[in-house]
Amino acid sequence: MLNSDRIRTTHVGSLPRTPELLAANEAYQEGRITWDDLTATMRSGVTDIVATQREIGIDVVNDGEYGHTMSSAVDYGAWWNYSFSRLGGLTPSDEDRWATTEKHRSSPGNIVLTTFTDRRDRERFREAYEDPSSGILTARKAVKQPKITGPLTYTGQDAVAADITNLKAAMERTGATEGFLAALSPGSCARVSNEYYATDEELVYACADAMREEYKAIVDAGLIVQIDDPSIAESWDQINPEPAVEDYLGFIQLRIEALNHALRGLPQDQVRFHLCWGSWHGPHTTDLELKHLIRPLLSIDAGGYSFEAANVRHAHEWRLWADAGLPEDKVIVPGVVSHSTNVVEHPELVADRIGNFASAVGRERVIASTDCGLGGRLHPQIARAKLGSLVAGARMASDRLF
């Protein structure tokens, strides 16, 4: 996974869906087309999106998360919602976590989690959040989240097999040599309303055992699995009132231990972990600083660590990596272009950001990336321009560093 002669590039996963795929998703949900019809549309779309990534110059490609159903062109939750169709033990409900307020208690630390409407950042900027002209929350379809009412099992074997087949075929066709697929973390999986498990620990470990099947299938296919886990950083803002940092670290430690349980025996060089503070385009003044999270992050059994770093709330935190103790055989995958602004970063800025991280951990251990998924957050034309700037900046940084 280490660089040898240049800075390699990748992204976090979600890319804008095509109108054809969005229409096929809707038709399948409504029973108007078959699974085979949907997978045929996905296969064609993955072929095209991998070709686009290669044309732009992305090194470590993926399927655009085209196997993770988006409700509409604007969708902040597809990275999580896709799991609902791949898990047994769930019962449909009328709950939409972006539009309702619900609290549940977790341990250790007696942490009380809330839904989006009761977050501290939203409380601080309530007028802005509730003003549709602010652009913080753009138009989206309501998505109903299920409840856990029975033992969790993994039922997504056909779906993950289709993801694998589609990506590997597209990679072979385009000459791509490194590919990844994103999968939900146990901690994020456990954010579904629970009516079955007696304790937080039982719930999180049940999620770990279920999702391990997806991780293993991806790794066994020779691909990299990216663990998507906003729950490690984002949950801080979801706790109201603000907890003590040490209580919060105890809360996320359980989730890290469960994730490592799910990753046991899997080769670390085929695992990367994605940390972010959430994808909504808000002020983020209540984000927990990376200085509190970097040690827990490095305790995760992954070969690469992806995180937001172009986000202006966290762009200064690159300095922490100089003293973080990153193992020599591991890499960081910092975001050097952002998903939360329509402004396309200049390649010189991208190169400077890459150079900062290279000075902290070494040029061999920096893979340039995006902050988070671009699909569902940015117009396709802007998303493509940002990937182009990412590649151009990485080439510029490579000329400086190699």
Automatic annotation (TrEMBL):
GO molecular function term, any single one: 5-methyltetrahydropteroyltriglutamate-homocysteine S-methyltransferase activity
UniProt xrefs under SUPFAM superfamilies: UROD/MetE-like
Listed Gene3D superfamilies: 3.20.20.210
One annotated GO biological process: methionine biosynthetic process
Annotated ranges, domain Cobalamin-independent methionine synthase MetE C-terminal/archaeal: 8-184, 201-394
Annotated Pfam families: Meth_synt_2
Protein name: Cobalamin-independent methionine synthase II family protein
